[in-house]
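Incident log, structure service

09:12 report received: a user says their structure output differs between two submissions of the same chain.
09:20 pulled the input from the user's history:
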Amino acid sequence: MKKRCGWSQGDTLMERYHDTEWGVPLHNDRKLFEFLLLDSFQAGLSWSTILNKREHFRKAFDNFNPKRVAKYRRVDIKRLLTDEGIVRNRLKVNAAVSNARLFLEIQKEYGSFDSYVWKFVGGKPKVGNWKSFEQIPATSSESDALSIDLKKRRFSFVGSTIIYAFMQASGLANDHVASCFRYKKLRRLSQ
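09:34 re-ran on a clean worker, output below:
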C-alpha cells in the first residue's frame, strides 16, 4: 500500500487529487486560475467540500476561463447564486468575477500569471521536510508576500492562509510529508 499524506487517505477523490495534482508545479495560467478560484471558495470550508463540487464549479465558471469569467455581469452572478452545485456565497461569487478581471491585468503586465506568481518563490518550489502533517505551516513568508501584493491589486479572498493553500495546490510549495510516496518525486522536479 502506498504511503500518503494522512489528510488524503480513505477518500478516493482526495487520494486521486493527492496522487496526481497536489504539489505538482503548475505553469498553465488556466489551471492557476482554477486553483486560485477554488481556494478562494474554500475559505471557511474543507477542501473535500470544494473538491467534491469541482466539476460543478468547472461548468458554472466556463471551464475556469478567466477571460469569460471576467465578462460576467449581474445575470451571470444571479445564475451562480442559484446553482446548487457550487458554494453560493455572494461575496465569493463577486470576488471570483472581480479576481478574474484582475488576473487578466496581471497577465497583461507580466505576460502570464505564471511569470508573476512564480517570482514569489524564486522560480522553483519551496520544499518542506515535514515528518507529520501537523508540522506543515498554514502560511509562509512567501504566501504573506503574495497575499499582500494581490490585496494591493484589489483581489479578494486572498489572505495568506488561502494563498498558501493555493501555493500547495499549484506546486509552488511541496508540502508532502517526507514519508509520502510523492515527496521524493516532486522534490526532484523542484531541482
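09:41 both user submissions now match this output. Likely a transient worker issue. Closing.
09:42 reviewer note: Strands lie at 126-127, 173-174. The chain has ten helices and two strands.
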